[in-house]
Write a structure and sequence with these properties.
This is Multi-component regulatory system-3. The chain has 132 residues and is α+β, with helices and mostly antiparallel strands. Helix content is 36%, strand content 12%.
């Protein structure tokens, strides 16, 4: 016998213990699979403090609740238990209505500090070969 939990006032998603989430991810994003803004999994997002007029609902509220400080797209997707593409659509909606800001991850500099030490990598490879 499976137990179904209904959505509570706090916006908790519907779950069936055997089947998982009862509302399919594409319904949360209204069938959209492409966000209107570009997001990398490492893109940092943060709430602006503005309350969205058009982006309302429990899923948007849950995402906004996670954006009190800088947080990555990957972290948000993990917390709300949705695929990254659906999370990106929700985040793009929130950016479009001014509720959050997004900052792309900093590019890795090509300076000497970012270069990989070839000798170290070869030592690791040799150690791994010895263990096999």
């Amino acid at each position: 016998m499976t137990v179904r939990r209904l959505r509570r006032q706090g916006g908790e998603p519907w779950y069936d213990d055997a089947a998982g989430r009862l509302v399919r991810p594409y319904t949360i994003s209204n069938g959209r699979t492409r966000p209107t803004a570009h997001f990398d999994l490492l893109t940092m997002v943060m709430a602006t403090g503005r309350r969205p007029v058009s982006c309302q609902g429990p899923d948007y509220a849950q995402v906004l609740g996670l954006c009190g400080g800088p947080v990555s797209v990957a972290e948000i997707a993990a917390h709300i238990r949705l695929p990254a593409v659906v999370t990106k659509v929700l985040l793009a909606d929130l950016v479009d209505c001014g509720a959050i800001t997004a900052r792309a991850p900093a590019a890795v500099s090509a300076g000497p500090a970012s270069r990989t030490d070839r000798a170290l990598l070869e030592a690791v490879l040799n150690g791994l070969r010895k263990r096999l």
